[in-house]
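Q: What changes when iron/sulfur cluster is included in the input?
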Amino acid sequence: METAEKKRVVLQGKQVKKYFPVHAGLGRPNHYVKAVDGVDITLHEGEIYGLVGETGCGKSTLGRTLIRLLDPTDGVLEVLGKDITRIKEQDMTELRRNIQMVFQDPYTSLNPRQKVGEILTEALEIHKIGTKRERLDIAMEIMGKVGLRPEHFYRYPHEFSGGQRQRIGLARALILNPKVIVCDEPVSALDVSIQAQIINLLQDLREKENISFLFIAHDMSVVKYVSDRVGVMYLGHLVEEAETEELFQNTRHPYAQVLLSAVPSPDPKVKKERISLEGDLPSPMNPPSGCVFHTRCPYATEACSLVIPSLKEVAPGHKVACLLYEDLNTVQE
Ligand code: SF4
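A: The predicted holo structure follows.
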């Protein structure tokens, strides 16, 4: 694709925070789970942005917050240049047309009592688009785009395989002609061969329809294959971001280096040394001070427990949040 910087920004989050209150009893919350804690992220037109990190790092919460399926605790959200941070639910209709979501398990997100045709035309009906005949034609066209056959229109979700159900999920997301689709682990429940089919389909849709995808996954190999840019999350923070090739060739952040060391090389003669990570992921209810990775980082110094590193550009388009790349005389405690 064209260099992302030249393209229009379709989705942006500035210093996005999402805290979940924890109540020990009645009354005010006494703790907060800091699922997302000050993330800056930008998605460009026609771009596939891969968001990775281990389970519990906050990537799914960030994806849902960016499109206002969850209300942010703080920060600013913009879709197509419009501030949607505090927009009321009744004013969200246009927004919902432009941004859609595809879930990991399409089966639980599809109504088992509705036939595929009803699932697809329902969104058009809600948005008062077309006559009954026109809605049927639109649904048939979308089904063709995702590789479903006309006879599938009259079948129920349980009659399909996992890969086909994910095609139905994609068709439902596409039917309103959105600009952005957030895909939350869309292939992790599928067999490898089916994963490849769905990923190729996403890339095809990006090429033909110029749709932007936020592709959330924990599998670095999948993200490497599908994404134009990649962001790595750890404990609610974005710790590294770059174009895919740059990120995989010049990985800077110690946590990203651990994740990438687990990706097998396509060349069987190349042996990669896998870096293992000590300790468990700390609780987001009580994250470590300073750099949140310092309790597990092999390069941590005393400063790392005191100073919060900010996401800084270390090469064109390549940003890292690590004190190894900062001048400690200029950082704020
Ligand atoms: Fe490791 Fe310190 Fe960099 Fe954090 S700031 S990743 S603890 S070296």
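Observations recorded in class: The chain has a mean pLDDT of 89.
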